[in-house]
Amino acid sequence: MTLLTFQNDTFIGAEVEGAVGSNGPRSRFAFGPSTMAAGELAHLLFDRQDRDRIHETWRGLVSGRNFTYRAGLSPDERAALSYDRLRLVNEAVGNAAELADDPYRLASLHEWTGPVDGGLCTVASIHYNLFLGSLLDHDTDGRDLSAFTSMQRTGTFLCTELEHGNDVASMETTAVLDRTTNGFVLDTPTPGARKFMPNTSTIGGPKSAVVAARLVIDGRDHGVFLFLTPLSDENGHLPGVQVHRLPQRTGTPVDHSLTSFDHVWLPREALLEAAHGRLDSKGELSSNLGNRRKRLLRSISRITMGKLCMSAGTLGMSRTALAIAVRYAHNRFIAGTKPGERVALVAHRSHHGRLLDKLATAYAMTFLHRTTVARWAAHTEGDRAEVERLVAIAKGWITWQARGITIECRERCGAQGLFPANGLADLPLNIEGGITAEGDNLVIWVKAAAEMVLGHEVDRRDPIELPAGERDLTDLHFLRGLLAEVEALWQDRARTALREGPSGDPLSRWNETSPAALEMVSVHARLQAADAFISATAQAMDPSARFLLGNLCLLFLLGQINEHTGDLLADGHMTADQVRELPRTVNAVISELAPHMMTLVDAFDIPAEMLTSVPIANGAYIDQCLDASATGPAPLPV
Known about the structure:
Radius of gyration: 26 Å
Distance between the termini: 49 Å
Number of helices: 21
Oligomer: single chain
Helix content: 40-55%
Structural class: alpha+beta
Largest sheet: 6 strands, mixed
C-alpha cells in the first residue's frame, strides 16, 4: 500500500508495503470523494489567488446555452456560428486591447472555448492575438482600433504562403513604396505566393488583415514587415483582393482560404512601425536591428503568444475529454464476474488504469502551461530567446499529449464516443490543427534541439548522492533526478554524433545528430512538467489533496522513467531490483488513485451546465439514442 509522507508541508515520498489489489488493504491516507480536496486541486490548477480574474469570465460564458452543441449544421453554418460566438466573447471581454496584452487571460480564453467550439478557439486566437496583438505591439499613436475592439470588423493574419510555410523568410508577397502617392502597392507576384489558410471569406462579416509582405523601396528589399489591409466590407471583398475557399479540412470548420492581392494600394499608415523599422518623411528606413531575419522575427513575434494559445486550447480539450470519459466509466455498467452481477466500467484496471495515466499527464500539462505562461509574462529582452524556446517546447509536448489523451478517452467510451453530441469525436481532429498552427511541432522542436545540443546545461538540481540501491522508487526527487540524467544522456549522445558526423556536409551531420537531439528535447519537456508538478504538490494544504497530487505526480514520473530503464540501469543510476519493481509500484499507485477519479476530474471545474448537455457525461446516453431514433437529430437550444 502506498503511504505518502510529508515533512514541513513538503511531499518527500511514499513507502510501498505489501501487495495491493481490489481486496487488499487500504491506505491510511485513502480519503473518500472530497469536495474540499477537489476545491484545493482546482485552486492549484487554475492560478490560485488569480483564478477568478483569469478564468471566471470564460468559464461562466461557455456554461451558457449559446455554447451548447448544435446538430445538423452545414460547414458554413458551423463557421458562421463560431463568429457569432466570437462576438459574444467580445461582449464579455470588457476591454479587447487589455485582453490582447494579458497573456494569462488570453491563454485562458482558449482553454475554455477550445472544448466547446474548435472554430471559435481558432478565430479568437487570430483576432485577439495575431491581429489585434500585432497592432498593439507596433506604434499605435493616431491609429483608431475601435472598429476591431468593437468587432465591427474581424481581424485576421496573413503570413504563410502556399509555397512558403516553415520558410516564411522566403515569402514573395511584396509591398512596394509608391513615391508618387507616398503609399504602398501590395501584390502577389506568383501563384505560390498566395497566402495559405487565413480565414478571409465573407463569413463572419467585414474583415481586415495584418499582411506580412516584403517592403521594397526603390527596388531594394528591406525584409518582411506587416501591413494593415482591409479585405472586405458589407458588399463583399474589396477590389484587388482575391479569395478562394479551400477544401474542407478535418475538425470544426473554419473559413480557410487562399488569398492574393492584385496591386492593392495601401495608405502610408498601413505599415506597422516600431523600433525595428520606421520610415521617415523621405521614405528612408531606420532600424535598431541589423538584419532582415531579425526584423521578420520582430514583426511576427505574436506567434510566440500564439503557441501558448494553441497549447491552452488543447489543454482544455484534454481535461474536458477526461471529465466525460471518467463520468461515463462510472455510469456505464457491464456484466460482472458472477452470474447476474453488474459492475461499472471503472471497476476494471484495464479501464481505469489507462484513464489514470492520462489524468496524471493532464495535471502535468496544466502545471507546465501555468509556469510557461508566467515565464512569458515576466520575460525580459535578456532571457527572451530562452523563454521563447520553452514556449515552443511546451507547445509541442502539450499538444502531442493532448492528442493521445483525447483519442484514449474517445476509445474508452466505445461507440458512444463517436457521436459529436457526446463531446469527444471532434476533439482529436481539432487538436491536429493546434499541433500544426503557430509552428509545426516537429519543426519548432528541431530548432530547439539545434540550440540545446551545445547551448544548454541540464538542470541537476537534485544530485543523486546516495547509491541507487538506497533510493526509493516512490521518492519524487529521486525520480526527478533520474529524468535529468536521461536528458543529460541524450544530450551527450547528440554532442557525440555532432562531433563525429561527416565533415563538409552539414545536412548529413545534422541528420546523424537530430534523433538524439530531439529525444533530449522530449525529455527536457517532461522534466519541466515534472518540476512544475512537484512544486504544485508541495503547495497543497489539504492533506487529501496532497495525497492525490503526490500519487498523481508519482504516477507521471514513473511513466516517464519506464521507457528509459535500460539506459539508467546500464549507467548505474538504477538497480536491477528497481527495474523489476517498477511495474508493481505503478500498479500500487494506480490502486490508490482509482477510488478518487471523480475527485480528480471534479477539480477540472468544468461547469455543470456543460456536462449536463453531454449525454454520456450524465448517464443520459440511452435517452439520447431513443430520442434521436424517434424524432431524428434535434439541435440543442441556443
